[in-house]
Amino acid sequence: MAGSVWPRVLPFCIASTFLTYLIYYLRRYHDIDLTFNDKGHSFMSMLVSFLIVTRSTIAYTRLMEANTKLINCMRCCRELVQHAVAFTRHESDIAARKWRSQLARRTIVLLQTSVAVLEYQSKGVDAWKTLELKLDEKKALLAAVGKSNERAPILLTLFLRSSIATHTEQLVKGIHVNKELYLLNFVSDMSKSYHGLMKLSATPFPFPLVQMARTFLFFWIFSLPFALVAQYESMPALLVINFILTYGFVGLEYVSIEMDDPFGDDPCDFDVHGLALGVIDDIYIAIYDIDGKDAADALKQSVHGDDDKEEIVKIKSRRKFASDIDIMKQSLARKSSFGIGRILSEEVDLYEEHEDVEMGYNNQRPSNLNIEIEEQTPLLGEENY
Predict the structure, then answer these.
(1) Composition of the chain by helix, strand, coil, percent to 5
(2) For the chain, what is the radius of gyration of the CA atoms?
(3) 128 exposed, middle or buried (CB, 10 Å; 0-12, 13-18, 19+)?
(4) Please, how many CA atoms are within 13 Å of residue 112, restricted to the half-sphere of its CB?
(5) Which residues have CB under 8 Å from 304's CB, separation 6+?
(6) What gap in Å lies between CA 114 and CA 241, rounded to an integer?
(7) How far apart are CA 217 and CA 60, in angstroms?
(8) What is the pTM of this model?
(9) Bridge partners of 373?
């Protein structure tokens, strides 16, 4: 029954059917007539049908638009790397391999961060906590966009465009300007689709229309038995008709609710994470095809952060954020045991810097939280360029 509306609609069907039986029983055996003429109810049924069908149509249109933009994001990421590989196939030196690996990694990071933004409402994980991000990239996101998750992919798009532009420095022959524009167009197309998804996410279904539809729907559904009993004498026919009508109208409303937010963990939601993993595998295959297995493995390690430089974080006094930091250490220890490869001290350092961001986006740390860092990591990832 995963994804079915039956579990939620069935209680309404049972309640409406029981009400029908009660009205029929009182009229038939106790001469208590609660029924009324169905003419007014018939006119009201047209209004309910219009509202329910309109709501379902709008929800379905939004769902298909979100699906189109999501698939386009995946397509642009996949084709960006594949075209970059095809355009530079004649160059196989170390600098060219580094450029392709850097471009592929930036693409993967942008894709995974976009997925984190789309799934934020259901999972509650901030974009800067995406595991594929390096330490300097996380610091850049915290400094530039803070808690504005939807802006994180925009900054990473800038990084990706900059990576494409470095072909003049890292490639011997470089890429022809038309091919460079072709690669940049993929980035622009993905950015356009991402903004379209954000538009759908930030523009909920009009509440007045939802309110009207549900008000008329439930009033019509639970007044339906009073009109049906006056028209039919057969109790089995009454119960069946009422059950089917209730299931049809209430079921359509719940289908619309399912389609309103397709990004989440519900059975009917888009498998955004699964789609992203498929694209990432294709990117690994493209790098494997041109640079070999070692390059593909190195890219995987880079994506999972195994090449991040460990920073030693010494916490001298922990009073205000002690419990939160301990919880994060335990969580990250479990992640490390699963082979994700994140460095605990880096995440603790980032968590405390994030607390500083929440306290006013300044560089001053609380007096009761003194942290020493042995080596400062560049803020905006200069070493990657």
Answers:
(1) 70, 0, 25
(2) 29
(3) buried
(4) 20
(5) 131, 132, 340, 341
(6) 47
(7) 19
(8) 0.77
(9) 313
